[in-house]
């Protein structure tokens, strides 16, 4: 059962993107093209987020569903979301924050309405490309690291031949690793 979100934020279906990993009390959703390997999830709950195993998300290894949700909320890119069964969806941060990552994207937290090539997208967390080279704009896809983009360099732009338009396959990460 789902309930209305608090504070008028995104609805549960807005945040249920990507592949679902269901447990008894919580379902974790993983939207692979949005993952840039920050690895907050792996550090936070290594028993659940196991990138060398299949499936790589094993929600059944943590009895405390609220702890799973807590770690999912540390994912800065919005690659991970959760649904606590019978509970409201993740509440957006108030006020909205925008934080530049050194040599990387802008990370946002709040009640977000993002205009994307696929239409408007409701979000609570996102990492937006500022190097110009992402193949998944407006989102960061990790390309900034591969091309050595520096946020303090004059102009801050990647060379034109490095402005990728290739899109990572489902499960394909910017550094070539795969997750299913
Ligand atoms: S971006 Fe999110 S899902 Fe990807 S490794 Fe980092 S915390 Fe985990
Ligand atoms: S800032 Fe990460 S791909 Fe552009």
TrEMBL record:
The protein, known as: Putative Fe-S cluster protein YjdI/CDGSH-type Zn-finger protein
Taxon lineage: Bacteria, Thermotogati, Deinococcota, Deinococci, Deinococcales
SUPFAM superfamilies, per database record: 4Fe-4S ferredoxins
GO CC annotation: cytoplasm
Boundaries of every Iron-binding zinc finger CDGSH type domain copy: 115-150
Residues covered by region (Disordered): 144-180
Biased composition (Basic and acidic residues): 162-180
Swiss-Prot/TrEMBL keywords: 2Fe-2S, Iron, Iron-sulfur, Metal-binding
InterPro entries noted in UniProt: Divergent_4Fe-4S_mono-cluster, FeS-contain_CDGSH-typ, MitoNEET_CISD
Gene3D superfamilies: 3.30.70.20, CDGSH iron-sulfur domain, mitoNEET-type (3.40.5.90)
GO molecular-function terms, A-Z: 2 iron, 2 sulfur cluster binding; metal ion binding
């Amino acid at each position: 059962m789902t309930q209305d979100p608090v504070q008028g934020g995104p609805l549960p279906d807005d945040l249920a993107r990507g592949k679902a990993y269901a447990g008894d009390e919580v379902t974790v959703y993983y939207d692979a093209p949005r993952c840039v390997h920050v690895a907050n999830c792996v550090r936070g709950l290594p028993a659940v987020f196991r990138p060398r195993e299949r499936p790589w998300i094993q929600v059944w290894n943590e009895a405390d569903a609220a702890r799973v949700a807590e770690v999912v909320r540390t994912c800065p890119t919005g690659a991970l979301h959760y649904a606590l069964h019978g509970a409201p969806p993740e509440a957006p941060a108030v006020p909205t924050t925008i934080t530049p990552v050194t040599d990387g994207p802008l990370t946002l937290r709040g009640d977000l309405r993002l205009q994307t090539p696929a239409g408007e997208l409701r979000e609570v967390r996102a990492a937006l490309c500022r190097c110009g080279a992402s193949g998944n704009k407006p989102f960061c896809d990790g390309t900034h690291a591969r091309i050595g983009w520096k946020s303090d360099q004059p102009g801050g732009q990647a060379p034109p031949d490095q402005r990728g338009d290739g899109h990572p396959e489902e499960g394909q990460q910017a550094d070539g690793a795969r997750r299913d």
